[in-house]
Amino acid sequence: MDAADAKEKAALLKKNAINAQDILNKLSDRKPYVIIFLLDCCRQYFLRNTDLNARALNANESRSVGLTPMHKAGSLVAFACTPGTLVDDKPEEQNSLFMEHLVKHLATPNEDIANVLRDVTNGVMDDSDSKQIPFINVQLRHKNIYLYEQADGKNNSFRWSETKVTIRRVSSTHCMNT
Protein backbone atom coordinates (compact mmCIF):
# COMPACT_ATOMS: atom_id res chain seq x y z
CA MET A 1 0.00 0.00 0.00
CA ASP A 2 1.49 3.36 -0.96
CA ALA A 3 1.39 6.46 1.25
CA ALA A 4 -1.55 8.00 -0.65
CA ASP A 5 -3.67 4.86 -0.18
CA ALA A 6 -2.74 4.69 3.49
CA LYS A 7 -3.68 8.32 4.05
CA GLU A 8 -6.97 7.82 2.19
CA LYS A 9 -7.80 4.77 4.32
CA ALA A 10 -6.87 6.64 7.49
CA ALA A 11 -9.11 9.57 6.49
CA LEU A 12 -11.98 7.21 5.66
CA LEU A 13 -11.57 5.45 9.00
CA LYS A 14 -11.53 8.72 10.91
CA LYS A 15 -14.70 9.82 9.12
CA ASN A 16 -16.62 6.55 9.52
CA ALA A 17 -15.22 4.86 12.61
CA ILE A 18 -16.78 4.84 16.02
CA ASN A 19 -14.51 5.53 18.97
CA ALA A 20 -15.59 2.79 21.36
CA GLN A 21 -13.81 4.32 24.37
CA ASP A 22 -15.74 7.58 23.87
CA ILE A 23 -19.00 5.63 23.86
CA LEU A 24 -18.00 3.77 27.02
CA ASN A 25 -17.09 7.08 28.70
CA LYS A 26 -20.42 8.65 27.72
CA LEU A 27 -22.35 5.64 29.01
CA SER A 28 -20.42 5.79 32.27
CA ASP A 29 -21.15 9.51 32.64
CA ARG A 30 -24.86 8.61 32.87
CA LYS A 31 -24.04 6.53 36.00
CA PRO A 32 -25.97 3.37 35.07
CA TYR A 33 -26.30 0.39 37.37
CA VAL A 34 -24.12 -1.63 34.99
CA ILE A 35 -22.53 -1.33 31.55
CA ILE A 36 -22.17 -4.43 29.40
CA PHE A 37 -20.12 -3.58 26.32
CA LEU A 38 -19.64 -6.41 23.83
CA LEU A 39 -17.27 -5.67 20.95
CA ASP A 40 -17.02 -8.05 18.04
CA CYS A 41 -14.14 -6.16 16.50
CA CYS A 42 -10.44 -6.91 16.78
CA ARG A 43 -9.23 -6.12 13.33
CA GLN A 44 -6.39 -4.20 11.81
CA TYR A 45 -6.93 -0.50 12.07
CA PHE A 46 -5.13 2.45 10.62
CA LEU A 47 -3.66 4.97 12.99
CA ARG A 48 -3.52 8.68 12.41
CA ASN A 49 0.24 8.26 12.07
CA THR A 50 0.44 6.44 8.74
CA ASP A 51 4.17 5.80 9.21
CA LEU A 52 3.28 3.26 11.90
CA ASN A 53 1.09 1.37 9.44
CA ALA A 54 4.07 0.76 7.14
CA ARG A 55 5.38 -1.87 9.55
CA ALA A 56 4.91 -5.44 8.45
CA LEU A 57 2.29 -7.61 10.11
CA ASN A 58 5.02 -9.84 11.46
CA ALA A 59 5.12 -11.24 14.98
CA ASN A 60 8.67 -9.93 15.40
CA GLU A 61 7.82 -6.32 14.60
CA SER A 62 5.66 -3.65 16.17
CA ARG A 63 2.26 -3.49 14.58
CA SER A 64 -0.91 -1.46 14.62
CA VAL A 65 -3.46 -4.21 14.94
CA GLY A 66 -6.37 -5.03 17.14
CA LEU A 67 -7.92 -2.80 19.73
CA THR A 68 -6.39 -1.46 22.89
CA PRO A 69 -7.85 -2.57 26.23
CA MET A 70 -10.80 -0.57 27.55
CA HIS A 71 -12.03 -0.22 31.10
CA LYS A 72 -14.45 1.75 33.23
CA ALA A 73 -15.59 1.11 36.80
CA GLY A 74 -18.98 -0.61 36.85
CA SER A 75 -18.56 -2.17 33.43
CA LEU A 76 -17.95 -5.43 31.69
CA VAL A 77 -16.15 -5.03 28.37
CA ALA A 78 -15.74 -8.06 26.14
CA PHE A 79 -13.71 -8.16 22.93
CA ALA A 80 -13.81 -10.90 20.29
CA CYS A 81 -10.07 -11.43 20.86
CA THR A 82 -7.19 -10.31 23.04
CA PRO A 83 -5.84 -6.77 22.54
CA GLY A 84 -3.30 -6.48 19.75
CA THR A 85 -4.50 -9.56 17.89
CA LEU A 86 -6.63 -10.12 14.80
CA VAL A 87 -9.38 -12.60 14.05
CA ASP A 88 -10.67 -14.14 10.86
CA ASP A 89 -14.10 -12.57 10.28
CA LYS A 90 -15.13 -15.46 8.02
CA PRO A 91 -17.06 -13.18 5.66
CA GLU A 92 -18.75 -16.20 4.07
CA GLU A 93 -20.54 -16.87 7.39
CA GLN A 94 -23.51 -14.90 8.73
CA ASN A 95 -21.84 -14.35 12.11
CA SER A 96 -18.29 -14.26 13.35
CA LEU A 97 -17.15 -17.00 15.71
CA PHE A 98 -17.48 -14.67 18.69
CA MET A 99 -20.99 -13.56 17.68
CA GLU A 100 -22.01 -17.17 17.05
CA HIS A 101 -21.16 -18.07 20.64
CA LEU A 102 -22.67 -14.88 22.07
CA VAL A 103 -25.97 -15.68 20.37
CA LYS A 104 -25.78 -19.25 21.65
CA HIS A 105 -25.01 -18.36 25.29
CA LEU A 106 -26.56 -14.95 26.04
CA ALA A 107 -30.00 -16.53 26.35
CA THR A 108 -28.84 -18.77 29.23
CA PRO A 109 -31.34 -18.22 32.06
CA ASN A 110 -30.31 -17.73 35.68
CA GLU A 111 -26.63 -17.27 34.90
CA ASP A 112 -24.44 -14.31 35.81
CA ILE A 113 -23.10 -12.46 32.74
CA ALA A 114 -19.48 -13.16 33.71
CA ASN A 115 -20.21 -16.91 33.72
CA VAL A 116 -22.06 -16.66 30.40
CA LEU A 117 -19.01 -14.99 28.85
CA ARG A 118 -16.78 -17.75 30.19
CA ASP A 119 -18.90 -20.17 28.18
CA VAL A 120 -18.54 -17.90 25.13
CA THR A 121 -14.76 -17.84 25.62
CA ASN A 122 -14.57 -21.62 25.93
CA GLY A 123 -16.68 -22.10 22.79
CA VAL A 124 -14.60 -19.66 20.74
CA MET A 125 -11.34 -21.20 21.91
CA ASP A 126 -12.57 -24.74 21.22
CA ASP A 127 -13.82 -23.88 17.73
CA SER A 128 -10.66 -21.97 16.80
CA ASP A 129 -8.17 -24.42 18.34
CA SER A 130 -7.21 -21.61 20.75
CA LYS A 131 -6.18 -19.29 17.89
CA GLN A 132 -8.85 -16.81 18.98
CA ILE A 133 -9.21 -15.98 22.64
CA PRO A 134 -11.88 -13.46 23.67
CA PHE A 135 -10.74 -10.79 26.11
CA ILE A 136 -13.09 -9.91 28.94
CA ASN A 137 -12.45 -7.06 31.34
CA VAL A 138 -14.80 -7.26 34.33
CA GLN A 139 -14.99 -4.26 36.63
CA LEU A 140 -18.55 -4.78 37.78
CA ARG A 141 -19.49 -3.31 41.14
CA HIS A 142 -22.54 -5.52 41.64
CA LYS A 143 -23.06 -9.26 41.85
CA ASN A 144 -25.70 -11.35 40.10
CA ILE A 145 -25.98 -9.55 36.78
CA TYR A 146 -28.48 -11.73 34.91
CA LEU A 147 -29.74 -11.06 31.41
CA TYR A 148 -32.77 -13.21 32.16
CA GLU A 149 -34.82 -13.04 35.33
CA GLN A 150 -34.28 -15.73 37.92
CA ALA A 151 -37.09 -18.30 38.08
CA ASP A 152 -37.22 -18.19 41.89
CA GLY A 153 -38.26 -14.53 41.85
CA LYS A 154 -35.37 -13.23 43.96
CA ASN A 155 -35.18 -9.47 44.02
CA ASN A 156 -31.41 -9.15 44.47
CA SER A 157 -30.30 -9.16 40.85
CA PHE A 158 -30.19 -6.86 37.88
CA ARG A 159 -33.24 -7.49 35.71
CA TRP A 160 -32.60 -7.16 32.00
CA SER A 161 -36.33 -7.13 31.27
CA GLU A 162 -36.76 -3.92 33.29
CA THR A 163 -34.19 -1.92 31.37
CA LYS A 164 -34.26 0.16 28.26
CA VAL A 165 -31.44 -1.03 26.08
CA THR A 166 -30.13 0.23 22.79
CA ILE A 167 -28.35 -2.34 20.68
CA ARG A 168 -26.55 -1.22 17.57
CA ARG A 169 -24.66 -3.55 15.29
CA VAL A 170 -21.55 -1.94 13.91
CA SER A 171 -19.38 -3.36 11.17
CA SER A 172 -15.98 -4.44 12.43
CA THR A 173 -14.37 -2.09 9.96
CA HIS A 174 -16.08 0.85 11.64
CA CYS A 175 -14.98 0.15 15.19
CA MET A 176 -11.87 1.69 16.64
CA ASN A 177 -10.45 2.75 19.94
CA THR A 178 -7.21 4.67 19.89
UniProtKB/TrEMBL annotation:
GO biological process assignments: proteolysis
InterPro entries: Caspase-like_dom_sf, Caspase-related_regulators, Pept_C14_caspase
Alphabetized GO MF terms: cysteine-type endopeptidase activity
PANTHER family recorded: MUCOSA ASSOCIATED LYMPHOID TISSUE LYMPHOMA TRANSLOCATION PROTEIN 1/PARACASPASE (PTHR22576), MUCOSA-ASSOCIATED LYMPHOID TISSUE LYMPHOMA TRANSLOCATION PROTEIN 1 (PTHR22576:SF37)
Protein name from the UniProt record: Peptidase C14 caspase domain-containing protein
Superkingdom of source: Eukaryota
Record-linked Gene3D superfamilies: 3.40.50.1460
Residue ranges constituting the Peptidase C14 caspase domain according to the UniProt record: 14-143
